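Below is how a single chain appears once it has passed through the pipeline. First comes the sequence as given, then the structure the pipeline wrote out for it. We keep one example in the README because the format questions we get most often are answered faster by looking than by reading.
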Amino acid sequence: MIWLAWRQHRVKIAVLGAVFLVLAGGYVAMGFGMRNTLTADVLPHCFTGSDPARCGAWAELIFGIRNYAAVLFPLLPALAGMFLGAPLVAGEFEHHTFRFAWTQDVARGRWLRSRLLFLGSCSVLFGAVFAAAYAWWYAPGLEREGWYETFDFGLVSFPATCLFGFLLGVAAGALTRRTLAGMAITLGVFLPLFVAVKNFVRPYYLEPVLAPSPGIGSLRTGSPVFVDAGGAVHERAAAFDRAGIPDPGPINGSTELTDAMAAKGFFERYPIQPADRFWTLQAIEAGLFLTLAAGCVALTFWFVNRRLN
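Resulting structure:
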């Protein structure tokens, strides 16, 4: 069954793998180029842009690549769902081959399991290779920016996200019986879901810690707050009101204002996820997407085994 799945889907696997591997190869090539051109003490500054004179053209290139990566590369798991997942079941209906495929010696459940296992493994492998290449390219920036800047392409969460994207496409294609409709649903569901997880769920996997400063390598989870001498937490406007100081608007790191608030017993604190929680949060996010992936598998099997009887 694995060999048959490879024969049937080898072109799509090769094209999708080429996309992931070309991007991963680009990061590896840039990584070698940076390391061969710049010294180890200069490289970390190129990721923050704090020493452009010594970094040369690398600082601008890194800045541009990181901006494009943050916007475009989260689409990679969606591509796995659109071009590898959506046609899996929908294609059988469009080409009227499902009756032949499911009425031979191989039952439809075994047929579906073998393809999900094989193609899902390909999606995870592609995601892992890309995540490893990205992490190696970014390694010099860890000293000044920490791991959270790589969270979208984390070694743990990104392969799980790719698996979810693939299985979401399979479920969408099975429900619609049309490849194009399944591709559209996959993209329309994945992107808003990913944005919601990134901005509104990820920062609160664990209770944020209130720290005197954000600190290098930590993840900011909200606007600064104030803590009084009794340990009670106050939003900025409420804290200024209680302190009897006119609200000046955004503080922007003004030491005079923070000192004035401290004299009144209100101390500025930043809600953060500390750097040492990175891998824990990676595991939590991977678990979230694996749970969603399991739901897509259950939905696909229900549709294939029940609704098509």
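The first strand starts at residue 209 and ends at 211.

See the next section for the split statistics.
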